Amino acid sequence: MTGQTQVRRGADRGPARRPPEAGPRAHARPNHNRRNRTQSISLHAIVVVVGAFVLVPLLYGVIGGFKNTQQLSTNPFGLPSPWVPGNFTSVLSSGSFWRELWNSTFIAVATTVLVVAVSAMAAFIFARFSFRGRELLFTLFAAGLMFPFAVAILPLFVLLRMFGLLDNPLGVILPQAAFGLPMTIIILRGFFRAIPGEIEEAATLDGCTAFGFFWRILLPMARPALATVSVLAIVASWNNFMLPLVVFNDPNWWTIPLGVQQFQGQYASDTARILAYIVIAMIPALGFYAVAERQLIGGLTAGAMKG
Amino acid sequence: MTRPRSRGRLRGFTTVLLFLLPALVLFLLLVVAPIAVAMYTSFFKWNGLRGLPTDFLGLDNYTRAFSDPVFLGDLWHGGVLIVLSLLVQLPMSLGLALLLNQRLRGRAFYRLLFFAPYVLSEAITAVLFTMILSPDEGLANQILESIGLGGLEWFAEPSTVLLSIFVVMTWKYFGFHMILYLAGRQGIPEELIEAAKIDGAAGWKVFRHVTLPLLGPTIRISVFLSVIGAIQLFDLVWIITDGGPSHASETMAVTMFQFGFKRFQVGYASAISVVIFLISLVFALLYQRYVMRRDLEGATTVLRDKR
């Protein structure tokens, strides 16, 4: 076996440098090509099937939203006839959807500002100062990656009730920021570490304080990393369900995920109307994905590799 | 000589303290303390309404959990979801990542499409699939009936509900794992693959002996994330089935939420959340100790091997 590979390697070494068509393998090309084509067709088929698995539910939502419930059962696959835009317009003209959109936005932005600011400060210390117990502290934060809301939700609820933060956006913003710290600190620390020490020395020689270096040099240099962690924080906050569910009793504070669940309960039999609602509720998330795709994917892979 | 130095050290110390303080306060107060409180209250019988728990039960809440068929069912469901994720969802994501790594028409579009469900909240996903997999007039059953197969009961039947939940999980999360694998695959230098081909290795052999081992770290992270995700599953199940029918899709987090927020048995619910925490923690520690050790050690292993 080994002998054979040795020989083949020897034989291939010459032609391998030339363009592949010119080698002694040229006579085998037609056969090779046909195999390639069937292979590529079957690969395409797989991708198309999976693509349909992803896309059909979404399209069903969009198209179904333009039907009425009767059309949905008699004509499930075709285009709506006639098109019924009423489901969409009634959602868009209702105050509750816009209020939920505003609440979700406000909570996501506030959470993000808080978690990024606090994490950047901590990550700065973890990346560029050495003191006793640093690694221990860092490990404590990193271990927080494994703590989901589910574990802490009960005492968190008791605590928030004690502070009077139920039905208060701070009751969602503060815990979300706290639970976002581990991932944000880990990613930012990695980035801050990569900034060369010479820059810091030069700044210090020019009379820059630690805060001045952090504020005027490190943060502007870390803009891409800050964008990445901000995008992750926004998505996490936008999609959070469990915490708003226990904190907000008052519909005036509901976020989009709560509104979606509530709407389904309220109009259980009116499928088309619910479809219209969730399609509209998807738009901000998908739009944000379209804009921030690079930061989102970069952040997730970076977070996963370092976490 | 000593004075300026100690002043410098003092200033360094106050900088460290000031920069770390916000993160530390937020983290200790809203992440660590709640988990500690959950551990404390798990030893009591407590309705959580006011005051402090006084009715000490010792380990009774824990023994109750482990003799309750509902909780044992939760463990079983978690195990089933983990096994399904590892055997179906991850290989599917890996295969698609390798596929999309090749030159393929529409590759960028498919990548964008497959990842899109990850951006949507579990709440929206849950409501969408409640309607698509509805036993009466859902899209899935209409498709099945139009090709001559009988419809399924999906979420309405204890024997199919867990599989149906898994289908929804796959729809939402396979794209995320695919993106991780894609990043991992792009981190493998093309020279290594080419070298293997020149050595005479064909498709499957290249995958088995070159690509797969080099993807090891990514696979281990992806396994880790999907196990932790399955242990903590809540939103999807809560919205789609509430744990039913007859507890057939209940997860630990759902049971905890039921007892904590619906039946006001906060002591018992805390015991369940502590079990969730301990299972995640033990799994994470063992996994990092025995499975990811090689990734974390990295270069040192190579050195030791050489010696």
Automatic annotation (TrEMBL), chain A:
Residues 1-34 are annotated as: Disordered. It is a multi-pass membrane protein. It comes from the Bacteria. The chain crosses the membrane at residues 41-63, 106-129, 136-160, 172-192, 274-292. Pfam families: BPD_transp_1. Its main location: membrane. It is found in: Cell membrane. Keywords: Cell membrane, Membrane, Transmembrane, Transmembrane helix, Transport. SUPFAM superfamilies: MetI-like. InterPro entries: MetI-like (IPR000515), MetI-like_sf (IPR035906). Residues 9-20 have a biased composition (Basic and acidic residues). Residues 101-292 form the ABC transmembrane type-1 domain. Belongs to the binding-protein-dependent transport system permease family. This is Sugar ABC transporter permease. It comes from Microbispora corallina.
